[in-house]
Each structure stands twice: as C-alpha cells, then as structure tokens.
C-alpha cells in the first residue's frame, strides 16, 4: 500500500451492525461484529469497539479519511421549529440545544447536536448523539493515522438521494433499518415531525395515520416513500389506504447492503 494513498473509508455504523467500504484504488467491503453493551447508558460502546476493529483491519490499511453514516439506533432526532428571534448561528445553536433538552432532559447536555441546513423561515431536522462517542471515534481514527471526516445520519443521506423521486407534499419518508423504522413527515418542503420506533411492519400504517391526523394533514392520505435499508431484494410492507412507493437508499449507501445483516449481537 502506497504511503501516498488517498483512499477513504465509508462506515455504516449502528447498534447492531458495522459495515466498512473502502473507496479508491483498493475498493472492498467488509463488516465487523457489534456486541451489545451490558448497560443502556453506553449503547454506543459496542459500535465503537466494532468501528475500532474495522479500521484496524488489513483492508483499511493506508486509508486517510473516514466518513460515518449513523443508523437511527445511535441517534436522537428532533424537528426544530423556526424562530425568527434565533436567526444567528450562535443563538440558533442554543435554541436547538434547548429543544432537545425540553424532550430528553439532562442527558441531552452531553450530546453533540447538528442541524440540517433548512430553508429560512421553516422548521429543520436536527440529530444528536453522545459527544463522547464522536470524540472516541475521532480518537480511534487518529490512532490509526486517519482523520474522521463527515458524519451524518443514514436517514439524511437516503432522503437526499431521493429528492428527485418525491412528488407533491405532504408525504412520508420511511427508512427501514435492522431494528428500527424512522418516519419523516414533510410538508411545504420542510420537516413536520420525525419518529423512530422499533421495526414492526404491521404497525406502520396505524402509526402513520395517527400522526397524520394529529398534525392536521389533509383528509386524503398522502404518499409514503419507503426505503428498505437492510438487505437487497427485501420488500417493504403494503400499507392500506396509503399511496406507497418503494425507493432505494441511493448509490452512496447501496454499497453497504451486501453485508447488511445482524452479526454477533449479544450481551457482554
């Protein structure tokens, strides 16, 4: 491997799977086992261990940067309402942090929160994870001579990949992962609500309908864009009374699907 390699790694990281894809002159894809932690307080520890193992593997040797795509089981989401009084970057960050604190309480004080770029005057989507987790990921990279680059939710990457597929809103975008399904409602080009729940396909239609009516959406059910992100060939559930369409996760995330299975999940 050349010392001047510009290869990079892309990592899909969740509480039940860690999939690595090398991009560049020595392209390859592999996975590492994720062991569930004994305590919910350190739910990300198993993911960190698998991440560290993956970037230390021979396939990763010589790579310089690492991009991470987080599954929903390592994140907390929040739709942040627009407030004209908090339009500057500093005040907006404080406001977004306050919105998470309102919902999650004291634990949110130790989180790193990032807000997606939204339209002026509209609500936006924000995601949070433990700051210590991100610092540990960056430290693991530094220890291997790598740099932690972009880190974003898989939900955001999959949604962006399908922008050209979406019709008139309001509509739902649902990302199906190994253990969870994350539901994002969009209206007027902006997020309205986001929900992440244990994956139970039979309950999805009821969940969507309840939220739809609680939020005062039109009487006519809208479209539901379903993105299956577990294994190639798996189909999404049929949803009665909804206009359902299956979409893909996009080229960037599709490379992970060959290894999208739960591996070695067990309590320590």
Give an overview of the whole structure.
There is one protein chain. By secondary structure, this protein is α/β, with parallel strands linked by helices. The chain has a domain at 158-251: Nucleotidyltransferase, domain 5. Helices cover 24% and strands 30% of the residues. It has six helices and 13 strands. The strands form three sheets. A five-stranded mixed β-sheet has the order 3-2-1-4-8. It has a five-stranded mixed β-sheet with strand order 11-10-9-12-13, with helices on one face. The protein has a three-stranded antiparallel β-sheet with strand order 5-7-6. A hairpin with a 2-residue loop joins β10 (180-187) and β11. α1 (45-55) runs parallel beside α3. The protein is globular and about 55 Å long. The protein starts with 7 loop residues before the first strand and ends in a 14-residue tail after the last helix. The relative contact order is 0.16. The model is unreliable at 260-268 (pLDDT under 50).
Share in β-strands: 25-35%
CATH architecture of the domain at 158-251: 2-Layer Sandwich
Shape: globular
Number of strands: 13
Which spans of ≥5 residues are poorly predicted at pLDDT below 50? 260-268
Based on helices, strands and strand pairing, what is the structural class? alpha/beta
Element pattern in H and E: EEEHEEHEEHEHEEEHEEH
What's the main sheet like?
5 strands, mixed
What's the CATH C level of the domain at 158-251?
Alpha Beta
Give the termini distance in whole angstroms.
36 Å
Tell me the strand order in the biggest sheet.
3-2-1-4-8
What is the CATH topology classification name of the domain at 158-251? Nucleotidyltransferase, domain 5
| Rg measurement, Å | 19 Å
| Average pLDDT score | 87
Helix content: 10-25%
Number of helices: 6
């Amino acid at each position: 491997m050349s010392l001047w390699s510009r290869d990079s790694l892309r990592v899909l990281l969740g509480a039940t799977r860690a999939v690595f894809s090398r991009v560049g002159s020595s392209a390859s894809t592999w996975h590492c086992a994720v062991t569930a932690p004994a305590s919910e307080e350190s739910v990300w520890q198993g993911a960190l261990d698998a991440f560290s193992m993956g970037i230390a593997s021979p396939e990763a040797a010589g790579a310089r940067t690492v991009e991470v795509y987080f599954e929903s089981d390592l994140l907390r989401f929040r739709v942040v309402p627009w407030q004209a009084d908090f339009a500057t970057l500093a005040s907006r960050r404080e406001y977004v942090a306050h919105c998470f604190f309102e919902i999650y309480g004291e634990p949110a004080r130790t989180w790193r929160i990032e807000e997606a770029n939204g339209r002026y005057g509209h609500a936006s989507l924000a995601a949070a994870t433990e700051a210590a987790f991100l610092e540990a990921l960056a430290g693991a990279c530094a220890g291997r001579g790598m740099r932690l680059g972009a880190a974003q939710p898989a939900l955001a990457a999959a949604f962006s990949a399908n922008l050209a597929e979406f019709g008139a809103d309001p509509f739902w975008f649902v990302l199906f992962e190994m253990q969870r399904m994350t539901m994002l409602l969009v209206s007027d080009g902006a997020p309205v609500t986001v929900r992440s729940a244990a994956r139970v396909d039979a309950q999805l239609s009821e969940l969507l309908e309840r939220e739809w009516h609680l939020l005062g959406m039109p009487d006519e059910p809208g479209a539901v864009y379903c993105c299956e992100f577990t294994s190639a060939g798996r189909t999404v559930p049929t949803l009665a009374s909804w206009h359902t369409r299956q979409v893909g996760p996009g080229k960037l995330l599709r490379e992970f699907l060959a290894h999208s299975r739960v591996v070695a999940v067990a309590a320590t």
